[in-house]
């Protein structure tokens, strides 16, 4: 154990850095009472939103001229006006002069128009150009250093900037510290701003499965921090830890095997009995791994992962919808994984279920949008948990270094993304899969 610790310290030492071993910057994460950014922001571009960006965010953000020499903590490039291939030069013209002025952990956000919604021959050039933004932004994210990130926000044609405010605030803050190289699509649904951006979930009742410990526990804590009442769900064997989590967030504990055919009914009855209301937010976090090459896997290992990770979320969601126990404008968030996007050796069972979670989002997004609800997924990469801490040193370090940010994420990073998607102010964001992986080399 001591040798493993010494090896880990060596890999993450300044000496190793000088020898070319990638070293991650300490990321600036959200802290209540602290500014969203630790410096000013710059707005670039000639799109339709550029003129309104500063006014939308002026209360909590400082803006300076793009020509200023002051180091900047964020750049927002409005590329929505790029409509001809010749105009893509604007990307270079706008951002090339800015790159050496970025502070550590800076945020770069590019705004575009959702290309697949630009239909008709008259929009051919615009669709080409807007699709090109994805290659630009993902590549830029891989070039940035010292904890800086880059994201692309696609807005549906005709969308008002206010409908993207929650997304901009999330990306232009420490809440998105481990989200990098992502594409988020914002639709046209009404997305009311909260009374306080510090408490965007006030009045919401949330259910988090698998919340006794780990990522689920942190999700419960962050949802409660943001104002939600939380029902913490986990298996009876985790009862003591579950009670501690529930007490810490001033929520309630519900011991339940999510594979129970009556799980949806039990959850709804608990919500009614303890809170007298329907469920606003449902987070499908409960999950297990039983890794083995398919040739060596037994049926029990396959069935356990399938039933907990995917069958249960699907049936619970269906049960709550059919019984009418979801409140108006509900938010459902499923926990997928980069393994479900890229696949992973020895995880055919797990990756199947995590890709299936993305399928759940795809299959329900239109129906949910019609009723004012949202359904999205988060796909964590290498996150520092008790499970990853038990890994052998070298595989663990490979997992940490195999992303643009050159480190593992924290459970808070996944929880912050879930809280962003759970808020009524994010009602225009649905059908998305947001990877929380520091732009892992696995997957898109």
TrEMBL record:
Domain Ketoreductase: residue ranges: 204-386
EC number from the UniProt entry: 1.1.1.100
Gene3D superfamilies: NAD(P)-binding Rossmann-like Domain
Keyword annotations from UniProtKB, A to Z: Oxidoreductase
GO molecular function: 3-oxoacyl-[acyl-carrier-protein] reductase (NADPH) activity
InterPro entries: KR_dom (IPR057326), NAD(P)-bd_dom_sf (IPR036291), SDR_fam (IPR002347)
Family to which the UniProt record says this protein belongs: Belongs to the short-chain dehydrogenases/reductases (SDR) family.
Name of the protein: 3-ketoacyl-(Acyl-carrier-protein) reductase
């Amino acid at each position: 154990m001591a040798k493993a610790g010494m090896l880990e310290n060596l890999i993450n030492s300044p000496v190793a850095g000088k020898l070319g071993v990638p070293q991650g910057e300490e990321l600036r994460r959200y802290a209540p009472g602290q500014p969203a950014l630790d410096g000013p922001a710059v707005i670039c571009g000639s799109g339709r939103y550029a003129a309104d960006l500063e006014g939308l965010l002026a209360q909590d953000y400082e803006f300076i001229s793009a020509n200023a020499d002051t180091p900047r903590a964020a750049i927002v490039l409005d590329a929505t006006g790029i409509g001809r291939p010749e105009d893509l030069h604007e990307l270079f013209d706008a951002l090339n002069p800015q790159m050496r002025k970025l502070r550590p952990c800076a945020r770069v956000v590019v705004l575009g128009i959702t290309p697949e919604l630009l239909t008709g021959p008259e929009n051919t050039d615009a669709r080409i150009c807007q699709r090109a933004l994805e290659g630009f932004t993902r590549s830029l994210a891989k070039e940035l250093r010292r904890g800086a990130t880059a994201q692309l926000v696609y807005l549906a044609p005709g969308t008002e900037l206010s409908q993207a405010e929650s997304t901009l605030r999330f990306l232009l803050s420490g809440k998105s510290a481990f989200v990098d190289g992502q594409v988020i699509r914002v639709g046209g649904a009404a997305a009311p701003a909260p009374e306080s951006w510090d408490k965007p979930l006030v009045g919401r009742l949330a259910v988090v499965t698998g919340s006794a410990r780990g990522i689920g526990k942190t999700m419960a804590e962050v949802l409660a921090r943001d104002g939600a009442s939380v029902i913490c769900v986990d298996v009876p064997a985790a009862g003591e830890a579950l009670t501690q989590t529930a007490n810490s967030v001033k929520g309630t504990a519900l011991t339940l095997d999510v594979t129970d055919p009556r799980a949806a009914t039990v959850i709804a009855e608990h919500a009614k009995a303890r809170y007298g209301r329907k469920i606003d937010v449902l987070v499908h976090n409960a999950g297990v791994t039983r890794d083995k090459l398919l040739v060596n896997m037994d049926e029990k290992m396959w069935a356990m992962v399938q039933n907990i990770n995917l069958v249960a979320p699907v049936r619970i969601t269906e049960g709550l919808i059919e019984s009418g126990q979801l409140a108006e404008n509900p938010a459902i968030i499923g926990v997928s994984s980069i393994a479900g996007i890229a696949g992973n050796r020895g995880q055919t069972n797990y990756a199947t279920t995590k890709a299936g979670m993305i399928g759940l989002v795809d299959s329900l997004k239109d129906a949910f949008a019609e009723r004012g609800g949202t359904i999205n997924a988060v796909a964590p990469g290498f996150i520092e948990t008790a499970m990853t801490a038990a890994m052998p040193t070298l595989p663990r370090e490979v997992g940490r270094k195999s992303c643009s940010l050159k480190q593992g994420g924290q459970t808070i990073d996944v929880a912050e993304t879930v809280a962003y998607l759970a808020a009524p102010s994010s009602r225009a964001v649905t059908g998305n899969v947001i990877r929380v992986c520091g732009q892992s080399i696995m997957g898109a």
